[in-house]
Amino acid sequence: MAIYKFADLPDCAELQPRLAKFCCGRGIKGTLILAPEGINGTVAGTEQAIDALADYLSAGPDFGSRLVGAEIKFSIASAMPFLRMKVRLKPEIVTLRAPEANPAKAVGTYVEPEDWNGLIERNDVVLVDTRNDYEVGLGTFQRALDPATKSFTEFKDYVETHLDPARDKKVAMFCTGGIRCEKASSYLLSKGFEEVFHLKGGILKYLETVPQEQSRFAGECFVFDERVSVGHGLVEGDATLCRACRHPLTSADRADPAYVEGVSCPHCSGDSAKHQAAAERQKQMELASKRGAAHMGDDAAAAAARAKEQKRQRAEASRQRNAGSS
Asked: Biased composition, Basic and acidic residues: where in the chain (predicted)?
């Protein structure tokens, strides 16, 4: 379960040990961030345990009704993807370092995925991607402005230098799952922008909801897990990660002479220290691969086919459950 909600949680320090105890007592693992402005994170456990956690957060005695309406996404994994349970206290659930941005008090207008195309095709709407440059590089909406940021905290500088409330009367924003653009919308409102819109559920909800033939999203959406990227229908994309610098790689990147599988890529071609560590890691992986029969010949193809089918079934189960929870 992935969850976020901007809510007034001034007692987050008191909530931390109670939430950790609740999760650990049910075998739930992952990371949840608590801050005075709300909750954010991803956890995994049995279906019964996750259902219990969802109920506890939405109507339990500790949180009351403060997390009602949280943005929640369910997915299914074949094995536990996390090593331990962590409940962390932070100043913000998504770091912008702008106290004037408070989505619990003021936020832009939510736009449902099925209404998004009509909004962003209007000539009087400025469309802004609030994600970082490496995410935008894999895919974005047509006509969207790229702030070219390395981190979300730099978004404030982009607003200061590229957007003007006197000129840009209507601004629409989007991000991966909705949390960054929700906070960005609050920030723009605090700076005097009149009409601010943001995509509810983010790109992921759009790709899950809008038919591909109607889509205005070009490319793939970067995700912060082992899939690296997803396309329409949330099907796993083509992107991979550079194991040296963790930058997402397109097929063009992998065709570049600077790309060496598991060792280097065009984005870190000058960093020899990273390459040395990555080369040793790749060597160990290759040795381990040679010891496994499932990595060779027909066995490898059969294993890949089974994995692909299992992934498809998990994705379909996730879509059905998310549809039932909406």
From this structure: 306-319
